[in-house]
Amino acid sequence: MIILDTHIWIWWVDDHPKLSPQNRDIIQAHQTSGIGISIISCWEIAKLVEKNRLTFESSIEEWLELALKYPGIQLLPLNPHSADRGQIFH
Hints:
It comes from Planktothrix agardhii (Oscillatoria agardhii). By secondary structure, the chain is an alpha/beta fold. It has a domain at about 35-80. Helices cover about 40% and strands about 15% of the residues. The protein has four helices and four strands. Strands 3-2-1-4 form a four-stranded parallel sheet. The radius of gyration is 13 Å and the shape is globular.
């Protein structure tokens, strides 16, 4: 399992050009072993939208619902052991 940093998750879901093809390949290669997303990333995205530092074509609720359904995505709870679950990818 890899754990995606918030901006990497956003770039992957939104097919942003800042995410290199090599990094895209790494993420896709981990779809079967798991792609961890911290619940804190959901909160961070909501705060960025609230402060107008991030915008989506859809509502934040719709974006999160879609993004959490991507193949391999596993929403990680907030606990001290989350960091031990895998390699953080940022």
